[in-house]
Design goal:
mainly alpha, three-stranded antiparallel beta sheet, two-stranded antiparallel sheet, about 50% helix
Length: about 350
């Protein structure tokens, strides 16, 4: 008997709905002696917040529904003598450690931890709110521009006063601008609250604080990188992280043709953007020198600043993963003793 453990009952129902085609119902919610880890108390359902009917049930997010169903239904052509992974069930605990077990063989497959997923959603919400605030400010600037009024380069705190100064004397324009400014102020207050919550998460996370020892890597970059990688053991080699986030160049080969193009831009765009921002800060803002910055400046002399930033972002992905996996701090120079004196 093969048992399926999923945090969502929708996929279980879809599988059992096809039992007439498969001869019998092979999938059900229940205990699995092979893979389900022992638990002392009931686990909370990460979706509903209540207790799971089975403490050993796993949590499969929406992104994994289609892939899991394809494996379980057997729609992918698989020979009977191939790896048992192709005829496996998904089981494990809701903490994200999904286990693939069949024929008394188990193999771990990767899925993002629920806590990391929540952290990532908080960072995404903060970013989206920031984008909306900036869009609203640009909308006000565009409205004034239509009347021949240019706001100019002013700071965030002085922007409302500058807009009211330009709109003074225009009755209808004042009525249009005031609600937009009030909405902007409310959105900035909420953004500040959400930003503080994200900083609290980073402050309590030892991994993020260790990653922040790298020059150019701040709280938001470290949090985005941690949520994107999720588990450093997913990568056998640290050099693979850059390719995973689309920071390696494309390559087209055919006969004698060998063309190296731009980066692939596959994977998580948010992590890729965060790494590029960190690389830009290291090259342009970091005052303390390091071998990493020296290497990037040499690349900039040969290939230009744009390629140097992308290359440095790829290098940062490797360095951060190695620091996370080994639990080490950033080394500023080749000689640790000399770097400590610097």
């Amino acid at each position: 008997m093969v048992s399926l453990f999923l945090g969502s009952t929708r996929l279980v129902n879809e599988v059992n709905r096809n039992k007439s085609q498969r001869g019998s119902s092979l999938y059900h919610r229940g205990s699995c002696p092979l893979a389900a880890p022992p638990v002392d108390k009931a686990c909370a359902d990460p979706v509903s917040g209540g207790e799971l009917s089975n403490p050993g049930a796993g949590y499969v997010g929406a992104r994994n529904h289609k892939r899991a169903k394809r494996w379980i239904m057997g729609t992918t052509p698989v020979a009977d003598d191939l790896d048992p992974l192709h005829r496996s069930c998904l089981s494990g605990c809701h903490c994200g450690s999904l286990i693939c077990c069949v024929h008394h063989e188990a193999k771990q497959i990767g899925i993002r931890l629920f806590q990391q997923d929540v952290t990532r959603r908080a960072d995404t919400a903060r970013k989206q709110l920031q984008i909306k605030v900036i869009d609203l400010e640009q909308t006000v600037r565009g409205l004034l521009r239509g009347f021949g009024l240019k706001v100019g380069d002013v700071s965030r705190g002085k922007l409302p006063a500058r807009i009211r100064e330009l709109a003074a004397g225009h009755v209808m324009l004042e009525k249009i601008v005031e609600p937009l400014l009030a909405a902007r102020e409310a959105m900035w207050r909420e953004l500040a609250k959400l930003h503080r919550e994200v900083l609290i998460i980073v402050k309590e996370d030892q991994v993020c604080r260790r990653l922040m020892t790298v020059p150019g890597v701040g709280a938001l970059v470290s949090l985005t990188y941690r949520a994107g990688v999720d588990d450093p053991d997913r990568f056998k080699k640290s050099k693979s992280v850059g390719a995973f986030f689309g920071l390696t160049p494309k390559r087209y080969q055919s006969g004698e043709t060998d063309v190296v193009g731009s980066i692939t831009k596959v994977g998580d765009a948010a992590v890729r953007t965060a790494l590029h921002d960190a690389a830009n800060a290291l090259l342009t803002r970091a005052t303390r020198f390091s071998t990493l910055k020296r290497w990037a400046l040499d690349v900039a002399k040969r290939r230009g600043m744009r390629r140097a930033k992308v290359a440095l972002a790829r290098k940062l992905a490797t360095v951060l993963h190695r620091m996370w996996a080994d639990g080490t701090e950033f080394v500023w120079g080749k000689d640790p003793a000399a770097a400590a004196k610097a």
